[in-house]
Amino acid sequence: MDHKYLAFAIPLFLVFMFLEYFVSRQKKMQLFDLHRSIANVSIGILERLTDILTVALLYGVYDYLQKNFGIFNIKPTLAMWILLFLGTDFVWYWYHRLAHEMNILWAVHVVHHQSEDFNYTVSARITLLQSIVRTGFWCVLPILGFPATMIAVMLLIHGLYPFFVHTQVIGRLGILEYFMVTPSHHRVHHACNDQYLDKNYGDVLIIWDKIFGTFQKEDEKPVYGLTHQLRTYSFLWQHFHYPIEIILMMRSERTLKGKLKVLFGSPMLMDPEMRDKAERIFGVKQQPQPLQQRLNVYVIWQVIAMLFALFGFIYYEVDFGASERFLFTGLTILTLINCGAIMEQKKWIFAVEFLRMLVVASALWLYNADYQIVTFFIVAVLTLMALFYRTIQQRYLSVVYQD
Ligand SMILES: [Zn+2]
Ligand SMILES: [Zn+2]
């Protein structure tokens, strides 16, 4: 399946992020924090990449379900397109509502809500697991009989629309406020003010919230993020803190019933102590100190390079084999961990740099016909690295972290 055009979502989203940045500066609104924006975009980079790698698989699942279990044989008529649109949006509402009401699903969705900013970069905070859970919910559609080709088109629209509601520079939108999910409605959804909690789950239409009693109008100024803020730039911790908290909480329950109640229970009932416990076990510190200029530049360049590489990878993805995909994904994950760890001032990032070099070396070795030269080069570099490990490490750390 050719999905080259999906690569253009990256420049499109970036253009809007920059536009929002300039508009917010003109309006003298402080909407962007550099580090938080980098953390947001980092999460989005991995999601785009893994999404592309799994799109064919998900398409296959829908196709299989429709051909083998489809109740009706639905044809793409106008009425059916409208029905599919309503169906997709309705399923989304329930997926999203349950994602907020059950710990096991919240563990996946929480990543979307960790940012204390609210701007277009926040819309990038989606993870592969979240897409998989969503796909599970949408399996209802092929079972009803909607063909995979129709669903793929619909999900593309559903994937693009929510991006545009993650902004503070757009006020109320008049008549649209009655039936569409607008930036104002979604600001409420991302806020942690008491009256805004667990409201406005809709994706494109707000009517489901109005029908099922979860609608809330924006009146007081929203405060964004979680009720118990995470305050970390760590790429890994943002993804794994909540599953760890659930495991800790389950371990503290003696009965199976108690454990299941944690797993499927409401995030509201989570013991806040679990976060502190998890942070102690994994040595995570909240709110690191502000970073130096030079450090920012290193992180920023890595993210820019990743965005360019990702564009190229998605554009040429069909031509790549399994090993190229594997290496590229490995390099991406290591780079994102590296950027997050630098923002957290971790000392172990040097080891990550080393792993990255190994990935690059394996790529050179795999794709270069002249094995002798490449092998010699790799061995020489590795030997030098081993001999002068301490010196290189110290030099590297002193460049990245100027104390
Ligand atoms: Zn949500
Ligand atoms: Zn959102």
From TrEMBL:
<dbReference type="InterPro" id="IPR006694">
    <property type="entry name" value="Fatty_acid_hydroxylase"/>
</dbReference>
<feature type="domain" description="Fatty acid hydroxylase">
    <location>
        <begin position="81"/>
        <end position="214"/>
    </location>
</feature>
<keyword id="KW-0472">Membrane</keyword>
<dbReference type="Pfam" id="PF04116">
    <property type="entry name" value="FA_hydroxylase"/>
</dbReference>
<keyword id="KW-0812">Transmembrane</keyword>
<protein>
    <submittedName>
        <fullName>Sterol desaturase</fullName>
    </submittedName>
</protein>
<dbReference type="GO" id="GO:0008610">
    <property type="term" value="P:lipid biosynthetic process"/>
</dbReference>
<keyword id="KW-0560">Oxidoreductase</keyword>
<feature type="transmembrane region" description="Helical">
    <location>
        <begin position="295"/>
        <end position="316"/>
    </location>
</feature>
<feature type="transmembrane region" description="Helical">
    <location>
        <begin position="373"/>
        <end position="392"/>
    </location>
</feature>
<keyword id="KW-1133">Transmembrane helix</keyword>
<dbReference type="InterPro" id="IPR051689">
    <property type="entry name" value="Sterol_desaturase/TMEM195"/>
</dbReference>
<dbReference type="GO" id="GO:0006643">
    <property type="term" value="P:membrane lipid metabolic process"/>
</dbReference>
<feature type="transmembrane region" description="Helical">
    <location>
        <begin position="77"/>
        <end position="95"/>
    </location>
</feature>
<keyword id="KW-0443">Lipid metabolism</keyword>
<dbReference type="GO" id="GO:0005506">
    <property type="term" value="F:iron ion binding"/>
</dbReference>
<dbReference type="GO" id="GO:0016020">
    <property type="term" value="C:membrane"/>
</dbReference>
<feature type="transmembrane region" description="Helical">
    <location>
        <begin position="6"/>
        <end position="24"/>
    </location>
</feature>
<dbReference type="GO" id="GO:0012505">
    <property type="term" value="C:endomembrane system"/>
</dbReference>
<feature type="transmembrane region" description="Helical">
    <location>
        <begin position="135"/>
        <end position="157"/>
    </location>
</feature>
<dbReference type="GO" id="GO:0050479">
    <property type="term" value="F:glyceryl-ether monooxygenase activity"/>
</dbReference>
<feature type="transmembrane region" description="Helical">
    <location>
        <begin position="322"/>
        <end position="341"/>
    </location>
</feature>
<feature type="transmembrane region" description="Helical">
    <location>
        <begin position="348"/>
        <end position="367"/>
    </location>
</feature>
